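Note to self: keep these together.
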Amino acid sequence: MLTGYNTDFKFDGKIYHCQTEDGGINSPFITSLMYHQGAILASRKTSYADILRADCLEDVVRELMMEQHKQMIRDLMQNKLEVNANANAQPQAAPAPKAAAPARPAPEVKKVPPPSLKPEEVKEKSLDDIILEFLAQDDKAKNK
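Structure:
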């Protein structure tokens, strides 16, 4: 597969882009596309399957590509290019993205005031007491 040709050019105050590509020996076609404002105006596809066994295939394909590329540009400038039916239509804008689903409201958090402890109820707990209390609360939560 050979590297293709890309040409931007101005004609009648408009900018066009011509692109010519080789499909390679597994898809032996030379394809040229003529663009204006991102829309394909015309295309041309030429098979070279009949010359795949040529000794200097790469040179021959390169010459065919160059000639087809130049001819597409000449045909446009001489008004000989078969323009696609949709070519005169303005390019359409991409569809607007779908609106995201409305965000769910955050779950309501109930504010529970801390239990009021009397100074005499506050006592220092040992590590063992804290662990036992934690395990008891954890067990209680699992059983719900």
